[in-house]
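question for whoever is on the cluster today: can someone run the full assembly for these? two chains, 330 residues total. i dont have access anymore since they changed the login thing
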Amino acid sequence: MSEWTPNPRPPDDTSVVQEHRNWFQLQIVLLICRFTPTCPEVIGILSLGMDKPLPLTTRVKLRIHYLMCSFCERYAKQLKYMREVAREFPEKIGEISDAKLPTEAKERLKEALRQ
Amino acid sequence: MSLRPGGIDGGMTKEIVERAASAVAGNDPAAWVDEHGDVLYRYALARVRKPDVAQDLVQETFLAAIRGHEKFAGQSSIRSWLCGILKHKLCDYYRKLGRETSFTDLEFLDDECAEKFVPEGYWVHMNGPKEWKPEADEVMHRDEFWQVMRDCLGKLPERIATVFMMREMDEIESKEICATLSISDSNLWVMLHRARMALRECLATNWFENPEVQH
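^ ran it for u. tokens below:
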């Protein structure tokens, strides 16, 4: 059996399938690997899922994949996190940026508006 | 009832005065420019990156606002109404851009970020995503965060950033983005996927895993 095993749970994670796996846990992980997409595929699917609903079977596969891969689970959370903050960006950028409409542009603008 | 100055009547008067004040401001375009010009310009600049294009867009926004002034019913603030117009102007601008260029950025899209994954197709243990703290609603109050966000968006190739911002900030449906930019569904998906990957990476490195900005 090879030394390398896919995606151990990070030390702060206490779920069933974790860093130091016993033989039985490893078999479960390898089984999950066979039947769910790989991580690069998963993050592609997750991105797609942000724009259109995913089929039920795909969503189930993702859930099963998360059992052995908290990285992808985090990635999914972070996509939602980014969406949440991105929506606030247009408003915030007006407050934190120090760019100013040049004075001559403002004058030109006022002139155009008067006509 | 009428003896109490701060009662219902008092509140209503205040509201009427405020409404009248905003109506006066609404009739003076020059005041609009001074009050909202910079904010609109900053947003436009973050979106199109070129100062002259941003200025043009702000001007078009104000002109459209004057023309459609009667349509402004006062349910929202003047600023958010103006921002709404600016978003439409940005869309028009992108539509033109979509026709003029092929709207892909192959070099950026080709980057497979090989160092993130082992050949078998799983995260390299050390490089997998780490937990993001604090939560989104907390982070939004930090000016430094928005600066990092702005810089990270600025690092994306312009067209990639454009599709990301249309989707996530303007909340335009993907079908509509495809039509506006004349790109295919799969092309859009690749661009959005890459944008999200790169932005996530950039935010993680420069904010969430950067001890200097976190206290």
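summary bc i know u wont read the tokens: The longest helix of chain A spans residues 70-86. Chain A has six helices and no strands.
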